[in-house]
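This section describes the prediction task in plain terms. A model, or a person checking by hand, is given the sequence of a single protein chain and must write out its three-dimensional structure as a string of tokens. No templates, partner chains or ligands are provided. The sample shown here is typical of the held-out split.
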Amino acid sequence: MVMDTIDWANETTNPPAGSLTQSDLTVGTSAQELSTVTNQMAVALLADPANTGTIYVGLVSTVDSSNWPLAAGAYLSVAADVALWVIASAAGQVLHVLQAGQ
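The expected answer:
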């Protein structure tokens, strides 16, 4: 049986139920929402091991260094459909995002 595949990284809609997708995000010194993680069952975030700064993860647009820190190589997993915001201590930090659709 041959099944069609869809490149969800290039889709504008959310992944279907039961799907697992991965994407990379460049995080800078301005807060940004992880809009790709809405309507998800679970999200795992990994700060790239080569990062030179820290990425901070929060629940509001005023995310700053008082929020959850992700140093190079650190990860965070969230099992809820929540809005996540990120900011970094330096420009050009890479955040790897793995998400499971609802």
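For orientation: The chain has one domain: 19-101.
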